[in-house]
Write a structure and sequence with these properties.
With 434 residues, the chain is α/β, with parallel strands linked by helices. The chain is 34% helix and 17% strand. It contains 13 helices and 16 strands. The structure holds pyridoxal-5'-phosphate (PLP).
Length: 434
């Protein structure tokens, strides 16, 4: 079966198409989505029986591959026992255990887990914690956030304000929400001085600095040195500003350490986690605060409490999946797998350096990036990759791989050879997209 002669679409796809509004999609012109009937390991099984190797692990979630038996068993067992209870006034073992394990795994005293269902919401919670941290301590002028060009922190209204104002997918909405302070990451002494000057001027308005450590993901898969994070920690401390690390993409092994912050040897005041938290099975996110942040809410005054509580907060099924995923991390095999994937991506993508339109090829951990000078034609490229047996969905100017850590060597070869065949010839420019 080739892209030129697709099998007839299944009935459910055409019946649902007029009613399903798809993500990041011009519904009128986008090619129809690929119908997926099942998943297996590193593969998507399409409705017509074709299998595609998944190069991006369903938006970076399925880090152990699909349908991992250990996670599936944990979710099934939890489903029988108790799929959900509200978290207000009630407690359950999967959330207690997960909070304790996250506190053990995270460096420093990031010990206080506040659960939610999506990454964006956890970033909103971290932002709200930071604002109220200062209010609870009697400092009322810190109402803004400082974030960075190239950053991405979600699609909800408040998180849009801390995304890259241009590259982000939200430039249409400038002026709708309060504008934040956007700076360049302090990648060298000169940009550190610029940031310092900005904070000398406006530091008293800033509640927190928000950034993705080591890799700015959806903003372009941009890498930076761990020293940048140490500079941010020093700058935040000098100006009494909190530091929020959004590890929703980088957390759980993707960059080679369990958390990207470990490469810098420093900790933020709040970290957000989601995407790979449940190994790609159920939606769950968490904002984990340091003891200092938590202490600012610990009071005899009911008004000092964090007034937040998503309905499906700490959903037991999702917490059971996350605990099972952490079991898989605990045996440590992922480290060798990430190193193996990293080497395969580096070797397999290197020939694209110098290909038409390509401005950079870079690899960090289980992330391999081919960056173009201009936005690429996302829909057409997806179709071309699918014809090569790969599911790869470019983003803006970058075509990248972020596969499951246990993707077999032969499947990694399918991914990198699809990249070389489709991108090597050039002619990939288009209208962009995500
Ligand atoms: C994906 C992502 C988010 C948003 O998470 P959702 O679950 O899509 O709301 C926020 N920050 C980073 C770094 C992300 O990669």
């Amino acid at each position: 079966m080739t892209a030129e002669s697709p099998a007839r679409a299944p009935e459910w796809l055409s019946a649902g198409a007029p009613h399903v509004w798809r993500p990041y999609c011009q519904m009128k012109t986008a090619p129809p989505p690929l119908p997926v009937a099942a998943t297996r390991g590193s593969r998507l099984v399409l409705a017509d029986g074709r299998e595609l190797v998944d190069g991006i692990a369903s938006w970076w979630t399925a880090c152990h591959g699909y349908n991992h038996p250990h996670i599936a068993a944990a979710v099934r067992e939890q489903l029988e026992r108790m799929p959900h209870v509200m978290f207000g006034g009630l407690a359950h073992e999967p959330a207690s255990r997960l909070a304790r394990r996250l506190a053990d795994l995270l460096p420093g005293d990031l010990n206080h887990a506040f659960f939610a269902e999506s990454g964006s919401v956890s970033v909103e919670i971290a932002m709200k914690m930071a604002l109220q941290f200062h209010i609870n301590r009697g400092e009322h002028g810190r109402t803004r956030f400082l974030s960075f060009r190239g950053g991405y922190h979600g699609d909800t209204l408040a998180t849009m304000t801390v995304c890259d104002p241009e590259e982000g997918m939200h430039s249409l909405f400038s002026g709708v929400m309060p504008s934040q302070v956007i700076a360049d990451l302090p990648v060298d002494a000169a940009s550190e001085a610029v940031l310092e000057a900005l904070l000398v001027e406006r530091g008293g308005e800033i509640a927190a600095i928000v950034t993705e450590p080591l890799v700015q993901g959806a903003g372009g898969m941009l890498f930076h040195d761990p020293e940048v994070l140490r500079r941010l920690r020093r700058t935040a401390d000098r100006h009494g500003v909190l530091l929020i690390f959004d590890e929703i993409f980088t957390g759980f092994g993707r960059t080679g350490s369990l958390f990207a912050m470990e490469a810098a040897g420093i900790e933020p005041d709040i970290v957000t986690l989601s995407k790979a938290l449940t190994g790609g099975t159920l939606p769950l996110s968490v904002a984990v605060a340091s003891t200092r942040v938590f202490q600012a809410f610990w009071s005899d005054d009911a008004g000092a409490a964090l007034m937040h509580g998503p309905t499906y907060m700490a959903n037991p099924l999702a917490c059971a999946a996350a605990n099972a995923s952490l079991d898989l991390f605990e045996d440590g095999a992922w480290r060798a797998d990430v190193a193996r994937v990293s080497a395969a991506l580096a070797q397999g993508l290197e020939p694209l350096r110098g290909a038409p339109g390509v401005v950079d090829v870079r690899v960090l951990g289980a992330i391999g990036v081919v960056e173009f000078a201009a936005p690429v034609a996302v829909g057409a490229l997806c179709q071309a990759f699918a014809a090569e047996g790969a599911w790869i969905r470019p983003m803006g100017k970058t075509v990248y791989l972020a596969p499951a850590f246990n993707t077999p060597d032969a499947d990694l070869a399918v991914l990198t050879s699809a990249m070389r065949r489709v991108l090597g010839a050039g002619g990939v420019e288009g209208s962009g997209g995500v």
